[in-house]
Specification:
By secondary structure, the protein is of the alpha/beta class. It is built from 14 helices and twelve strands. Helix 8 links the parallel strand 7 and strand 8. Helix 8 runs parallel beside helix 14. The radius of gyration is 21 Å and the shape is globular.
Length: 353
């Protein structure tokens, strides 16, 4: 057992600098839950972009949300200083987030030392050598594990089973059910959501014609509702799916906030998605999730919970991590609508039992 370097009795207020992407935010949930476990009496504030409210609004493992949007480093530091935090935990890797924590005057500041920011932290951590070999959730859990050792001399964080359990209030669920009904869903039938877009990579997208063919099979063979979700900048691909389908899905892409998407996913029966934030959300909600992977690495970034199934073809050039495929997009075109339908059909039939 190491000698504790931080007195846990001094830690009354904690701020966690959250991540900047939806999928990454969901992947920090196990780390946030472990942080709550090791500091059960502390007031934990998540310092994060505004959209994160949609994910963490009903979370029982944080106490407050402080918004980072539109603020430069000096303004962020001023906002943090006004809250008088004892401890800052940085899930982000940027120099600016460490500078803001330093300006915020938290007595203890813990995070990875990359980008030359070690001098801004009171306890800087080495980047784990296994970063590209283990799932991303362990990258965040490792920070909390190191913190637990600093507080208590030893850590059990990495021994525990990662816990997601993202919750949505009944009020938000009821609002989502009404939204689905108003949009044309028959709530007496199964509801399958599609997320056919991807904000930061066209190479992640399974073909619109494949989503359309899958939508038709779900309608014709399972009599299921199909609902399209996504961000406003993904409307083009959702419209393409809808135009190609014989039975156009219910269109909600660009018509909802992230908070509403989370609530909608919580009342759907299944999500079929590319490697995007909603896939991580759905899995964390405990919902059956089919995630279609092509250029990205499921070993490190797949939706982690066991209720998520990865559909992927082994091809010689994947994972390439490119945003646009320079050849024939074979990692995606080799995944057929029939293959995805078989997995969806199995899930829906099991739900009916």
């Amino acid at each position: 057992m190491k000698t504790p370097l931080i007195d846990p009795g001094q830690i009354k207020k904690v701020v966690v600098r959250g991540t900047n992407w939806v999928g990454d935010a969901v992947m920090t949930i196990p780390a946030l839950r472990e942080l709550r476990r090791i500091l059960p009496s502390a007031h934990i504030t998540l310092f994060t972009p505004e959209w994160s409210r949609g994910i963490f609004a009903d979370a029982d493992f944080i106490d407050d949300i402080l918004i980072v949007d539109g603020a430069g480093v000096w303004k962020q530091g001023k906002a943090l200083r006004a809250e008088d935090f004892d401890l800052a935990v940085l899930f982000t890797n940027s120099f600016s987030s460490a500078a803001a924590a330093k300006l915020g005057s938290a007595k203890y500041r813990v995070g990875y030392k990359n980008e030359g920011r070690g001098f801004l932290l009171t306890h800087s951590l080495d980047m784990p050598g296994w970063r590209d070999e283990k799932h991303e959730i362990f990258y965040y859990l490792n920070i909390v594990a190191e913190l637990e050792t600093l507080l208590y001399g030893e850590s059990k964080v990495l021994e525990n089973e990662p816990r997601f359990e993202l919750t949505v209030s009944e009020e938000r669920k009821n609002e989502a059910r009404k939204m689905l009904s108003d949009a044309g869903c028959d709530r007496d039938k199964k509801i399958v959501a599609f997320c056919p877009g991807s904000t930061n990579s066209r190479a992640k997208r399974w073909q619109a014609e494949s989503y359309a063919a899958l939508a038709d099979k779900l309608k014709e063979e399972l009599d299921a509702n199909v609902v399209l979700i996504g961000a406003p900048d993904e409307i083009d691909v959702s419209l393409n799916v809808s135009q190609l389908a014989k039975h156009p899905p219910v269109m909600l892409t660009g018509k909802t906030s992230l908070s509403q998407v989370v609530a909608i996913l919580s009342v759907c029966d299944l999500l079929v998605s590319n490697d995007t934030g909603p896939a991580h959300i759905s899995a964390a909600l405990g919902k059956p999730t089919l995630a279609i992977f092509g250029p990205t690495n499921p070993k490190t970034t797949r939706p982690f919970p066991a209720n998520a199934e990865i559909i992927r073809k082994e091809v010689e050039c994947s994972p390439c991590m490119l945003r646009d495929c320079p050849i024939d997009h074979r990692c995606m075109t080799r995944i057929s609508p029939d293959e995805v339908f078989r997995s969806a059909q199995f899930i829906v039939h099991n739900l009916a039992e």
